[in-house]
Amino acid sequence: MTRSSIELGDVTPHNIKQLKKLNTVVFPVSYNDKFYVDVLEAGELAKLAYYNDIVVGAVCCRIDNTENQRRLYIMTLGCLFPYRRLGIGTVMFEHIMNFAEKDGNFDSIFLHVQINNNGAIEFYKKFGFEIVDTKEQYYKRIEPADAHVLQKTLRRTAPNSNSNATSTTANSNSRSKARQFTFV
Questions:
Q1: Superfamily of domain 6-153 in the CATH hierarchy
Q2: What is its main location (predicted)?
């Protein structure tokens, strides 16, 4: 029996064209040049996935500081169809979770998924994501145009933030809980 190898590698100016090609094959939407410029500056938040030294997937994220929260936004996480269900998506997701866990300061991780992409929805649900909203007409030039917002909460914000001591304690306790994620 041969052993398969799954590894993650950095996105660099030398391999960015591989990411562009991969995204055109995997996703029904196209990404502009600014997306790829941002990806080159994303460091650990952008990785190519290699299966036996062949680029077969990628994950690209960014930090979102809106709604008085610090959240990690998964812009893309995808794998070529013949290589799905081999654990590659899980390796990419675990990399992102480990990043968030190591940072310890994210409220949640979220992303948009086309409403008919049941495979992606089920993938994220197995990691504790929930559908928290549906955005109508989110996508341009593809059908269906609606997207679910999926979110995994990493820490709860304190319900009463009038007292700094209460808020700080609640956040540090939640942060400790966020760090207790383990992957089997």
A1: Gcn5-related N-acetyltransferase (GNAT) (3.40.630.30)
A2: cytoplasm
